[in-house]
Amino acid sequence: MSTEGHGDWKRRESWKSALTQVAVVAVVLAGAVAYFVHRGTVRKETEEHLRAARAAALRGNPSDLTRAMAELEKLFQLDSDARDAQALAADIQTVLWLEHHQPGADARAREYLARAEALDSRSGERHGARALHLLAEGKTAEAEKYLADLQTQGANSPRLTLAQAFTLQAKGDLPGARQAFARAAENAYRDPRFTTAYGEALLDEGQPAQAVEAFEKATRVNPDHLMARLGMGLAHAYQGKKLEEAERALATAQEKQAELTPALTSRAGALKAELALSRGAADQALQEADAALKAVPDDVHALFARARALAARKVPEARGAFEAAVAKRKTAPLLYLDGARSLQASGDTTGALALLDAYEGAFGAIQVASADGKKVPLLEQDGRYWLARGGLLEAAERQDDALVAYDKAIAAKGVGLAKAQYAKGALLVRRKDYEGAKALLAVIAPDTGAGSLPEAYSAMGDLLFAQSAYAAGCQHYYFGLVRARAQGMPREELASRIDTVKKGLETAGQGAMAKAWLNETGALLQ
After folding, report:
1. What is the pLDDT of residues 160-181, one digit of tens each?
2. CB atoms within 10 A of CB 64
3. Going by C-beta distance under 8 Å and a sequence separation of 6 or more, which residues neighbour residue 150?
């Protein structure tokens, strides 16, 4: 085979091939470097946007949530498949929908949640949002099963615990819900949303003092958290204490009028109504409550304020207004128990008892875990309910039925045990069963003065006066007045009670003791 003209083909091909290979390698390397640099830059930017979004959302106000969403939208322009970012967006929009009633947030929440689920996000935001969506759709049993399945798989996060708390609340298992709210707040103590939710649950239960403590914790994390500030103001108004703090909370909200969502506007309106009621301005309270309901028509605290305003005006429409509030939140004891007290004060004892009948209908079938782990009826442990019922029955002169209710309140052995013992003891004094009354009252109104209930000492004073033990009776009355003064009783009421005891002594022919009584108690009025 001839090789003429081809003697140096290997050398020429090697030279060209080398150049080509070098060029190809250079292009590949340049592309790879550019790809990895771009990928690293995108990853860094997405992480920065996600961190910024979480930091903004952590503050919890609607304006903060809006800033968080702006960061997430920038992130999605870089990487629309960032699954945990989609889950966080779903969580934020769910808060704006269910807690703030922001128009359009429901559709956006569902859209982001669908994306997070399609991308198989495993975050607590994705699963917590899904459970809350199920609850919003009235699918409590499905939400409970969904959370139970996640727990079986080992999933655990404060958002899942919070969703569990809302689920238990919707079922009516209030002790279980209370514990879950507390756990969620403890585990996510840097996020005021969780502690605020706990405070809201305590408000619904009619425990404003404990609600104040929860809201205070939330405001220590973010002093500007509007829902916590307004919630704390409402709790103060329900107690009739620290109304200046409630006024300050309202003023803070009004200064940020442009930032208020419908829920915040309604809450501010409910607080205005309650403050008006505290001043005895029932007509103004009704106007404020109606204005609040224009922002959120089913806001239970605005509905409750409206009903209380009508009860203060002593009009028949009050009963229907309380029933309307109960229909919106059937597992909120506040609406029943405080509503019944308001109706009783307005003279509608029948309506008050009907409201308590509705309470028993709502909670009668609910079973909760006892201290030893067994399932027991919730009402067996509900001393507050039986105490309220006993008071209404006593007011209706159904004393035998009232004693049965008081016995059930005592058997519950809850935090209101002393009040239940007092209520039964005072009724027995009315019935002249002095020995039975003394057995109860001596425990909570000991003659050492160590008891904490002013009314118990007053009842024991009545008992001792009835037995002509005037000196001992005066001593118990005095202990009661000291306790009442320490708890903030107005001077005018103290003076009235002192005068009542003086007149009782004079009627019994104890004039000298009556003068001594005035001398001894005079210092309490200074």
Report:
1. 999 999 999 999 999 999 999 9
2. 19
3. 127, 160
